[in-house]
Amino acid sequence: MIKYQGKGVYGAIAVGKISVFKRQDVQVKRVKIEDTSAEIARVKAAKERAIMQIQEIYEKALKEVGEANAQIFEIHMMMIEDDDYNEAIVEMIQGQSVNAEYAVAVTGDNFAEMFSSIDDSYMQARAVDVRDISNRIIACMNNVENESQGLDGKQIICADDLAPSETVSLDKDKVLAFVTAHGSSNSHTAILARNMNIPAIIGVGEQFLSQIKDGDMAIADGFTGEFICNPDEETLSAAKKKLESEAEKKALLQKLKGKENITLDGRKINIYANIGSVDNIGAVLLNDAGGIGLFRSEFLYLENTDYPTEEEQFKVYKRVLESMAAKKVIIRTLDIGADKQAEYFNLDKEENPALGLRAIRLCLSRPEMFKVQLRALYRASVYGRLGIMFPMITSVSELEKIHALCEQVKNELTADHIEYSDSIELGIMIETPAAAIISDKLAPMVDFFSVGTNDLTQYTLACDRQNPYVENFCDTHHEAILRLIEMSAQNAHKHGAWIGICGELAADTTLTETFLRMGIDELSVSPSFVLKVRDVVRKIDLSK
Ligand code: PEP
Ligand code: MG
Question: Most buried by CB count within 10 Å: which residue of 211, 266, 426, 432?
Answer without folding.
Answer: 432
